[in-house]
């Protein structure tokens, strides 16, 4: 039987990220509430509600049991469907992982992919504290921000959108107080569409 001091030592190892706690970190998730549906391989349509979202998947609630491993088509509020894999189902909740259709391909955004938004994000330069910036438009592969602390071309930064995990990006252009960011890894189209539903669109005149 372990003594109290030995038990506290093991707790310290686990809490400090030692070998006893060496597990891959879970992507930071954002609590959301979006209605949609799944199309199963049997052509059955299942109503769902998305309750949290990360860059590579989401959790949904549904009264219909889903089978881990089955591939479904996810559609939110009538938007185009995206493929996802059911990872788990328990107590009317299920975890979906978006299929990566971008693997091995270089994404080149078209002008029609650019969405006008007006929202706040947190941006961090290497070795500095994060500070708020305004984001004015977004694509799968980058965004346009207004800066107070002017960065450098090709500088590496990290941007945090809508409380999701930070994205690593590079400054690709600067014009007056505006700068363009290119993400190191493009957003999955499904995550991009859901972000567009969450973020306030820019006023149109």
Q: Would you identify the CATH H-level superfamily of the largest domain?
A: predicted glycosyltransferase like domains
Overall pLDDT score: 76
Rg measurement, Å: 20 Å
* Helical residue percent band: 10-25%
Structural class: mainly beta
- Gap from first CA to last CA: 73 Å
Q: With helices defined by DSSP (H or I, 4 residues minimum), what is the helix count?
A: 2
| SSE ordering | HEEEEEEEEEEEEH
Counting structural domains, the number is 2
Q: Tell me the number of strands.
A: 12
Describe the structure in your own words.
- It is a single chain.
- The chain folds into two domains: 30-98, predicted glycosyltransferase like domains (Thrombin, subunit H); 111-198, Beta Barrel (Thrombin, subunit H).
- Strands 1-2-3-6-5-4 form a six-stranded antiparallel β-barrel.
- It is built from two helices and twelve strands.
- The model is unreliable at 1-27 and 101-112 (pLDDT under 50).
- With 205 residues, it is mainly β.
What does the secondary structure layout of this molecule look like, with pairings?
Layout (H helix, E strand, L loop, with lengths): L3 H12 L14 E10 L5 E9 L3 E5 L9 E6 L5 E9 L2 E6 L16 E11 L5 E8 L3 E5 L9 E6 L5 E9 L2 E6 L5 H10 L7
Short description:
The protein contains 2 helices and 12 strands; from the N terminus they run αββββββββββββα. The chain has helices spanning 4-15, 189-198, and strands at 30-39, 45-53, 57-61, 71-76, 82-90, 93-98, 115-125, 131-138, 142-146, 156-161, 167-175, 178-183.
């Amino acid at each position: 039987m372990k003594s109290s001091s030995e038990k506290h030592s093991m707790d310290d190892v686990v809490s400090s990220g030692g070998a006893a706690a060496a597990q891959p970190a879970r992507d930071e998730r954002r609590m959301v509430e979006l209605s949609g549906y799944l199309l199963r391989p049997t052509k059955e349509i299942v109503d769902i509600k998305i309750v949290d979202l990360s860059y590579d998947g989401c959790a949904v609630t549904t009264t219909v049991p889903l089978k881990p491993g089955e591939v479904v088509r996810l559609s939110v509020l009538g938007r185009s469907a995206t493929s996802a894999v059911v990872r788990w189902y328990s107590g009317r909740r299920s975890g979906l992982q978006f299929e990566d259709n971008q693997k091995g391909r270089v994404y080149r955004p078209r002008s029609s992919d650019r969405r006008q938004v007006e929202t706040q994000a947190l941006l961090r330069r290497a070795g500095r504290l994060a500070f708020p910036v305004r984001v004015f438009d977004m694509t799968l592969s980058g965004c346009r921000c207004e800066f107070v602390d002017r960065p450098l071309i090709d500088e590496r930064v990290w941007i945090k959108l809508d409380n999701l995990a930070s994205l690593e990006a590079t400054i690709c252009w600067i014009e007056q107080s505006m700068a363009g960011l290119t993400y190191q890894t493009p957003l999955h189209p499904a995550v991009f569409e859901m972000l567009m539903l969450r973020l306030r669109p820019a006023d149109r005149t």
